[in-house]
Amino acid sequence: SEASGSDAFQPLLLITIITVQRRNDFHYVLQVASHFHRLLQKCGARCRSHRVLLCNVEADPSSHQDVRLLSSFFPMVSRGRTGGNPDPSLNQFEKEKQDYVFCLEQSLLVYSPEYILLVEDDAVPEEEIFSVLQHLFSARFSKPYLRNALYFKLYHPERLQRYFNPEPMRILEWLGLGMFLGPVLTCAYCRAAGRAGPSWCLVAFFALYSMALSELVGRHYGLELRRLHPALYNVVPASECCTPAMLFPAASARRASGYL
């Protein structure tokens, strides 16, 4: 079934899953759609203003078997193709960009939501996604420095989350960790060893030790502590990498589609 733009309901959040046909044994979009459906059911009344939209960008939309199954449960839009064969001069990146713009524009046209979460069909949501988004909507997005943001990335690969990274704020965070844990570990050591007081050499040693240990263990493991409460999540400047899950305010979605 095709989504209709006549629906007067305006959701707070529209989750648009952009999908293409993959190997038959993967069924990525089935997994992602079922996860979102389960989490929305679990969320209950707080998520009644959320909707899911499937965006089928397969060259032959009717060949996407998984979407045909899901079309009985979720509204769907398809990117129709004129002519039999795709343009051979169109490279993969340009095609993906055009598909992305199509899904963004259709999301605005069909539902006109306040926010669009554009998700690729292999991006499985975490259990706490809706509680975190609710906190962002109510407490964070009203801040002046976030009011005109173009988009918010909800995913960053683990390999790029280490401290040895070209992002300057990451180095400052690493130094801050050492400056905090160095004195704390020194005081704990002096108390356990019965020493009279700390020395700067000992503070420096424990600071460097904690910094080295955090890098060896992996910064991303420490970031897992954020899952204890939505307020522990942080909003930082986005890097260039990776777009599996992107959150757009409606006005920003219009700007982004114009830029692309």
Automatic annotation (TrEMBL):
InterPro entries: PGAP4
Cellular component terms per the entry's GO annotation: Golgi membrane
Gene Ontology biological process terms, A to Z: GPI anchor biosynthetic process
GO molecular function, one term: glycosyltransferase activity
Protein name: TM246 protein
Species for this entry: Ifrita kowaldi (blue-capped ifrita)
